[in-house]
Amino acid sequence: xxxSLLFIICLFRGVLGRPxxxxxxxxxxxxxxxxxxxxxxxxxSLNPPMCLVGKTYPYKSINxxxxxxxxxxxxxxxxxxxxxxxxGMKANKGTLYGWNSKVKPQRNxxxxxxFYSDFKMPKPVKGESAEFCCHLYSPPLKIGPSVRNALGTxxxxxxxxxxxxxNLDQILRKxxxxxxxxxxxxxxxVHG
Length: 192
What we know:
By secondary structure, this protein is of the alpha+beta class. The chain contains six helices and eight strands, in the order αααβββαββββααβ. The protein starts with a helix and ends with a strand. This is Secreted protein.
């Protein structure tokens, strides 16, 4: 009885205490296996990934902050094509507007990043809103020929339009030759 009560107290104090601190309540499992980290193994279940997008004026690369992701990833920014936006017919996003090859979160699972490798987001029409999505792939993607052709071009260049997010997803994973998968997407509105 006393042993089980002691085990429960150690486990409870370990969850509330700082990981790695002997006096702050180290988890029993971290005593048995020093590199075991409670947060790392439970981040996806107890702390689902979240994102926050910060507005920046004038329209330069947006700031995206992610929480709850412990592994490196590639960030891909997509939106509707400029042709669809002008005509009012919005079938599906799938135009590549931004790319960050490798984002490495801090130990607490939080990181703020920009689209360093490529960013060509069109400025929204005054009084209207435009929807964009930031897709995160882990492990990081390798740049394939289709993406290489699109990077560095203007926002309305046809090589940026992949037809849909689903089609772009297939191309990215096929050309990357990695076992990368989309782990989450953050969609947001930009107001003109």
